[in-house]
Amino acid sequence: MASVSVPPPTCLQKPLVVPQRYMFGPGPSNVPPRILKAGANPVIGHMHPEIFEIMSDIKSGIQYMFQTQNSMTFAVSGTGHAAMECAIFNTVEGGESVLSAVNGIWGERAAEMAERIGATVNTIVAPPGGFLTNADIEQALSKHRPVVLFLAHGESSTGVLHPLDGIAELCHKYNCLFLVDSVASMGGTPLHMDQQGIDILYTGSQKVLNAPPGTAPISFSERACQKIFSRRTKPVSFFLDLGWLANYWGCDGKPSRQYHHTGPVTAFYSLRESLAVLAEEGLENSWERHHKVVEYFHQGLESMGLKLFVKEKKARLPTVTTIVAPHGYDWKEITTYIMKTHNLEISGGLGPSAGLVLRVGLMGCNSSKDNVDMVLAALRDALQHCHKSKV
Ligand code: PMP
After folding, report:
1. What is 269-285 written as a DSSP string?
2. Measuring CA to CA, which residue among 112, 160, 104, 150 is closest to residue 354?
3. Which of 145, 160, 312, 346 is deepest in the core (most CB within 10 A)?
4. Required cofactors, per record (predicted)?
5. For the segment 139-192, what is each residue's pLDDT rounded down to a tens digit?
6. How remote is the CA of residue 241 from the centroid of ligand 1, in Å?
C-alpha cells in the first residue's frame, strides 16, 4: 500500500492542555469534580443492561426535574439545538402552521428550524428585554391557528424569564401544542411541566445541571405523542425520530430495544450524576438559592451604578443576567480584560442584545454569593482599567 501523503500532525505530539477557568458566561458552566469523575467511568456497551439501568435513572431524574409523569421522557444525544430540532421535527409536518414567540434569539432559531422543514411560520416579537402578554399570544393563536407554539422560558440572549401562566390553556383552546425551551432556566426557577400544561419541554446539560455539553433532557405529553404518532409523513430526521428514540430509551412499552445510534455513555454517566446532585439538593432549594444569589448580584450591580437590561423585576432570569453595556466603554474590551486578568468568562450580547449588554451566568454550583463577589470585583476592576471614551 502507498505510504501516507498526509503526515501525523506535530501539534498532536504536544500533551493536551486545558486551563481551569471560572465559567460565568451564559454557558457552559463549571463542571464540579464529582460530575467530571462520573464521566471518567469505563465505556461499556450502550445496549448493556447496566446502561439501560443508568438511562432509566436518568429518565426518573428528568421527570423529577421537569415535574412530569410523562413516560415519553429521555435525553437526546446532542446539545440543546438537537433537542429543539427533536421537538420541532417530530411535532410539525411540512405545510403546517407554527407560531414562534420571539423574545430573543431562540425564538428566531426555532422559527428557522420550522421553516427548513417546510412549515408555515409566523412570529410574534417582544421588544428586546421585554416579553409578550397573553393577549398578544391569544391574538396570534386565533389568527394563525398553529399546531405548535414555541416559547423560550429563559431567554439567555436577553436575560428574560418569560411568564408562562395561562399560555398552555390558550394553546389548548386553539388546539395547539405548547413547546417550551428551558435550556437556560431549568433548575434555577420554578417550572412544573404537568401543572403548567406544557406539551414539549427540553433543556441542556451544561447550564444549571453543571454537566458537560452534549445531552439534552426532553419530555413529550400524551397530547404531543398523539399528534406525533398520527403523522401522515415520517419526520425529516432519522436520528431524531421519536419512534426510534422512544424505543431506544424504553419509553414505548415494547419488550426489546433496537439499535438506533450509539448512545454517548460517558455523557450519560455525567448527566446521571448531575441529576443526582440536583435531587440531593432538592428542586425548591435550588430555585431559592438561584433567586437569592441573583437578587444579591443585582443589588451589587445597581450599587455600582450599572443598569439591568430587563426592566421588569419579575421578568429577570435568575440564571443569566443581562447588564446594559456601560456607557462609553467597548464591551469587548471589558470581557477580554476580565478573561485575561481574572481568568473569568463573562460574555457580550447575542442576537437582539448584541452590542447592548454584558451577560453573566451563575448557574448550578456557580450560583453562590462568593462568586457574585468575584464577578463584581472583576467588573469594578475592568471599569477602572478599560478605556472610557470622552464622548
Ligand atoms: N436555548 C437556550 C435558551 C439556550 O440558552 C441555548 C444555549 N445557549 C440553547 C437553546 C442551545 O443550546 P446548545 O448550545 O446546547 O445547542
Report:
1. HHHHHHHHHHHHH-HHH
2. 104
3. 160
4. pyridoxal 5'-phosphate
5. 999 999 999 999 999 999 999 999 999 999 999 999 999 999 999 999 999 999
6. 20
Q: Which of 108, 183, 186, 363 best tests ligand 1's pocket when mutated (most atoms within 8 Å of CB)? A: 183
CA of 179 to the centre of ligand 1 (A): 15
Burial class of residue 154, CB neighbours in 10 A (0-12, 13-18, 19+): buried
CA of residue 156 to ligand 1 center, whole Å: 8
Instruction: Write down the pTM of the prediction.
Output: 0.97
Q: How far is CA 346 from the centre of its chain?
A: 17
Closest atom of ligand 1 to 320 CA is 5
Report residue 190: phi and psi, to 5°: -60, 135
Atom of ligand 1 nearest to the CA of 81: 16
pLDDT per residue over 228-286, tens digit each? 999 999 999 999 999 999 999 999 999 999 999 999 999 999 999 999 999 999 999 99
Question: What is the bridge-based pairing of β-strands 344-345 and 320-324?
Answer: unpaired
Q: Please name the amino acid found at residue 318.
A: P
